[in-house]
Amino acid sequence: MEKFSITTAIDYVNGEAHIGHAYEKIFTDVIFRHYKKRADKAFFLTGTDEHGIKIQKTAKSLGVTPKELCDKNAASFINTWKLLDIDYSHFIRTTDDYHVAAVQNIFEKLLEKGDIYKHKYTGLYCSGCECFLAEKDLDENGCCPIHNKKPEVVSEENYFFKLTKYKERIIKHIKENPKFIQPEFRAQEVLNQLENIEDISVSRAKTNVNWGIEVKSDPSQVIYVWIDALSNYITGLGYNPEGNIKEDYNEFWPVNYHIIGKDILKFHSIYWIAILMALDIELPKSIYAHGWIMIDKSKMSKSTGNVISPKSVMEAFNLDNPDALRYFMATAAIGGKDGNYSDDDFKEKVNADLANNMGNLLNRTLNMLVKYFDGEIKEDFINSDLSDKVIETINEVLKLFDEMEIALAAQKIINLLDETNKYVNDTAPWALAKEEKMTECGRVLYTVLNVMAHAAILIEPYCPNIAFYMAKQLKIDVNQKFASMKDNMINAGKLISKEEIHPVFLRLDSEIMGAKKKA
Ligand code: MSP
Questions:
Q1: Which of 477, 451, 462, 486 is nearest to 411 (CA)?
Q2: Which residue's C-alpha comes closest to atom 13 of ligand 1?
Q3: pTM (2 decimals)?
Q4: Catalytic machinery residues
Q5: What is d(CA 409, CA 401) in angstroms, rounded to the nearest whole number?
Q6: CA-to-CA dists, residue 308 to 74, 146, 177, 299, angstroms
Q7: What digits encode the pLDDT tens for the residues 349-365?
Q8: Measuring from atom 25 of ligand 1, which residue has the nearest CA?
Q9: Distance from the CA of 261 to the center of ligand 1, in angstroms?
Q10: Could you report the per-residue pLDDT of 27-48, keeping only the tens digit for each?
């Protein structure tokens, strides 16, 4: 594979990052890191969505300017992604000058093309969704079902985009490209929505919304926040219809995936696609809509008071690095369905998979290598059943990533380690050593360490820190491409001394952990 590129939704900065935002960024980061090991070049774009009435209102209620609110919360998102080791290539803020200029030019281009026209309109606007809703979208109390609030009646003359002009082309594209909208069951949802689409309002009168990008040729209007936000996917790579287009755009557009939540699929698979068609720009290869993360099985919401941040989870469990949370989040849902976070499930899953299964196996094996062989590998012999299993696991993991089943892919790695644990228990190297069957004993230890070397490379996208510490003790390069993985990853000769052995992951409730917490 030559190139791989991926984007996330850009988050509203009316608050700080919560575990739902984190889910999407971790999910995307795991996919990005995996494909980095398969592609020659890879790019990951993320950022923040900073304009619109929601930000304007929040800033007002806090007594700060919208820009002050954006600066504070954009910094908080950036810090959270740093804390979670999100390895993005570029972070775009929609208040960045280059983005503002490019969006203005995009709007002008659509005006020139005749795809945008002026129209007087009265509609129901939900500031939570940042969009107009139809009567039929409301619940029995006349409220937006997502935000539980009554939309505002807005009557304005503003600009409209000829969405209906592109309806048939979008339907055709979705039908002809079954992988365009993923998971596949979401495509039907979009096709149903397409049945009833109308042209959409793409600007707001500045008298009503002033926190936005001005229409260049008509400064009495600001550009609709979703047009502004969706454009980030190309402006963030350096696209500007009037300016110099940057290399990243030529290299990485169209992206392999837009990763977004299920709630914003309509904006991406209808509005965004129509705009790209209007601009004569190639379409993204795929849009993947993930499910939502619930907290203790309920929807996270400010009013319920159950919103949790990634930072609070890391602090509560006294984690030095984000791997446990990354691993839990990346494996929280299958097939684009909703997932759930609870403290108990978190502790149980990471203790079972990362501490008992992976960490202990490595630690135990390295200690035996030191005890029986002074840390030296005598012979690079591998048990053939396990080496077959390693190859099978690599193939399955690659296939599951191509199917976007990253939770199932992680399970395959854990299954490999389960089998390896079983192999250790069955062959009992400690008993072999006691019986002085040192050749057999050495072969068992080598087989296990060699599996661990493969596992470290495969698990790195989920757990980059744990993988790094595993690789350090196994003396391998954890960032190598999958294609360069050999059957025998570890060379014969001295591998490790007693002092160099460190546990790669401690159980969350272990005594050491408790002592650390007290300290
Ligand atoms: N700003 C828009 C996106 C513009 S993209 C051009 C927006 N922002 S958001 O902050 O509300 O949401 C950002 C992303 O986080 C969305 O993909 C959304 O689905 C996702 N999530 C928000 N809460 C979530 C959960 N509880 N669980 C999983 N993802 C969720 O929409």
A1: 462
A2: 11
A3: 0.96
A4: 18, 21, 126, 129, 144, 147, 299, 302
A5: 7
A6: 18, 19, 38, 12
A7: 999 999 999 999 999 99
A8: 20
A9: 6
A10: 999 999 999 999 999 999 999 9
